[in-house]
Amino acid sequence: MSINEIIERFKTAVIQIATQQGTGTGFYLQQYNLILTNYHVIKGSGDVTIKGKNFDKRFTKVLFSDSKYDLAFLSPPEGVDFPIIQLGDYHTLKDGDSVLAIGHPYGLNYSSTQGVISRVDRIQNGLKYIQIDAAINPGNSGGPLVNEAGEVIGINTFIIRGGDNLGFALPSSYVVEALEQYLPLRGTSVVRCNSCSTLVHEGNIDGEYCPNCGTKIELIQYNDKAIEITGVAKTIEDILHKLGKDKDLARTSTNNWEVKEGSATIKISYNPDNYFVVGDAFLCQLPKQNIAPVYEYLLRENYSLKNMLFSVTQQDIILTSLSHDMDITPESGENMIKELLQKADYYDNILIEQYSCTPKLEEN
Known about the structure:
Blueprint: H1 3-10, E1 14-18, E2 23-29, E3 34-37, H2 39-42, E4 47-52, E5 55-66, E6 71-74, E7 98-103, E8 111-124, E9 127-132, E10 144-146, E11 152-159, E12 167-171, H3 172-182, E13 190-192, E14 199-200, H4 231-242, H5 247-250, E15 251-253, E16 256-261, E17 264-271, E18 276-285, H6 292-304, E19 308-313, E20 316-324, H7 330-355
Parallel strand pairs: 5-13
Antiparallel strand pairs: 1-2, 1-4, 2-3, 3-6, 4-5, 5-6, 7-8, 7-10, 8-9, 9-12, 10-11, 11-12, 13-14, 15-16, 16-17, 17-18, 18-20, 19-20
């Protein structure tokens, strides 16, 4: 199987995962009808958002969490066609074998890097890991490590910071073992005890403790016990909800949100360290020619706009609104965000229709 064929097949199998803490990667296995990822990607969350090339952003539930092996299984979206992905045999791997690491580094949409296995059985914390030299970064966690046959032979799990492409993947043998142990319990949420490896669920938990060794266990917590949003962040989310936006799906991480208004993408962020709430509306891009009239128009609008400012970064035209957090009340914040949404859609249309600007390309 060629590298291009592998990359093309995995495009719709690899899934971006987001929680309040950050982003990561997962992939769908049709044989088990589950999304697989790392535990640390979804740690502390029972409900996470997922997005794929062939489906829009939506919520799903964590079904299995395993801090010992750093594994988690998620419920897949219904009505979505995925390619058939197979797990490979870890025991056939050799040092020097070619591999492909696939994922969403730093929240970017889908990338793949080639490399080789530096060591098949590197021991870390009492577990075997596949050491690879393929570049993986934060956000790649939970993504598949693929061999030349297009089989998943590991899950990209961690890197050593400061190392020269020192990446480590959990072998597929651990993954198969966890899947086979979970399947008889499918239909309930399951947590592996990190002391004795017993699978604990509502049917066998002893109060708050593992029924086998007595270790305290926290079962997966869903929406009704989700992390509470307070302060300025809650005000922003209440405003987004009032304006008809899904505040939960809009949340990309703690104190960061992203929404669409017409053809414009609006990113809202709050930095408690500098006390500012920033709204950046990413509009269209500069045209390839006759740029001067666009700049003249933007400068004229900047002169008349209040509490907003146009800027150009490379080819992107951005409309920005800036407010101090002490000025953000439910009323003033609503006016700020509502005006930014309206202006973003309004200016995006004018720039495209009257000034031949280029609609911003977006990854699927």
